[in-house]
Request: fold
Amino acid sequence: MSDQFVLETQGLVKEFKGFVAVDDVNLKVKRGHIHALIGPNGAGKTTVFNLLTKFLPPTRGKIFFNGKDITPMKSAAIARLGVVRSFQISAVFPHMTALENVRIALQSFEGSSFHFWKSGGSLDRLNERCMELLDSVGLMEFADTVTVELAYGRKRALELATTLAMEPQLLLLDEPTQGMGGEDVDRVVELVRKAAEGRTVLMVEHNLGVVSKLCDRITVLSQGAVLTEGDYQSVSDDPRVREVYMGTESTSTEVAG
Amino acid sequence: MMAESANASEIRASIVQQRKADDRKKLMVNLVLLALLLVAPAVLYPVFLMKILCFALFAVAFNLLLGFTGLLSFGHAAFLATGGYTTGYLLSTYANVTTEMGIIAGTAAATLLGLFFGLVTIRRQGIYFAMITLALAQLVFFFLVQAPFTGGEDGMHGVPRGYLFGLIDLQNNTAMYYFVLAIFLFGYILVQRIVTSPYGQILKAIKQNEPRAVSLGYNVNQYKLIAFVISAGLAGLAGSVKTVVFQLASLNDAHWHMSGEVILMTLIGGTGTLLGPVVGAAFVVNLEYQLSQGALADWVDAILGGIFILTVLAFRSGIVGEIQKFLKKNLH
Reply:
């Protein structure tokens, strides 16, 4: 059971005062899948992400990673275990260079992160791996550029490179294509596909074109609860999904858009 | 593929080279600063210079938090005063406590207090962090007013300067100056080392995007706590040395005015730069001195307040930050 599923939640609930944001969610993410979490605004997708990574404590329910109950663990510990998330707004360290951004992630496992007496030069030995990671997202030539000066699409690519530096088993991507134009979206789709090799990805995504191209399985959330789950075809054919998620428009026009 | 990796190593080498060039530049600035400080007593009154160095060390310690960790403490006076009072009490009460022992004890006391403050406050963010540090510092202030051995409102007077290593008479202002200079340099170089170290990189990351640092596996509170304790310890060191220089521990050092003044010095000089707090301390101490001599003596606070507002509104990078910006613009 735990071999097949990397991540499993049982009866996950998050209540804010007088409001149930996440309502009894049982999620199963299969190893090696790219799994999408979709749903209209306010459906609780990002809240689920926050619960999975313990940025918010769940009100009830349990979270299992590789069969191990990680519900009581802290955010940082979960990240070190191999569940690494990205954020909706591009999460970079703006006043560091691209290389330094990636290096922060590498330092997490390197054991020198408390060494306040060592020189900065002692980090040079991590640079080679940083360059590899930057190269893998097409940012090699920007290694020495301060991140705040990078274009939006490149910041998101840098964020992905930083996340991959953690060698996560499970990658949680919160709307990786948000706010992007066509060409950038295609680039990100390619990057995610590449990043997903040998790992599992759970992503929140609004762009159904992206979902149809990338995802093996889709869970639809509505008002905090799971509405349905399945592959793209069965989910997009489901009339309930059309009703809550796509309004009255038909699926095909959404995909084309 | 081969060409690409060769390209990568080229870029990598140039980054390392760039850093080494920056290090050399930093070293040059440090050497110039050192040379100036070494010859300064020939031109300026040593006691005045020592006052600047004590406050500069205090501001450098404070800036480790504000400038490099992103924490605004509004209670740093507590550490300055704890260092000062501990050293003052030990040196005035026990004849066999040497000056350097007194200073080490004062620093240790402030470090311990910093650990306590840190454990209480470090989970709090922004304004809450500032308010709780202020509240704790007020407790320390009232303790220093009430405790039987602190001299209450009067503070402690006539603290002996003593002999350094039992040899050098610190009653001599020139000898005292070079001793203070050595301690200042120790603190300054320590902070410089910290902010460029692997640990300093993590502090920078936490300051720039804390949730992201958490998501990369960092238990950010531990990192902040270490910075807080080091900052408190160095602030205590500044207080201890100040007590030895002026031979008194005064309630002024514990007052929240002092916590505000160090913020002022750091912001005017430039947060996030190493030299900023030093320049800011020199600027404020000098301005206070100059104004107290003239007709504007009653206006010191108002004038400092005006300068502060001007800095925050128009020159947010502070004196050193603005100069750095100017140089960057004109060298490229």
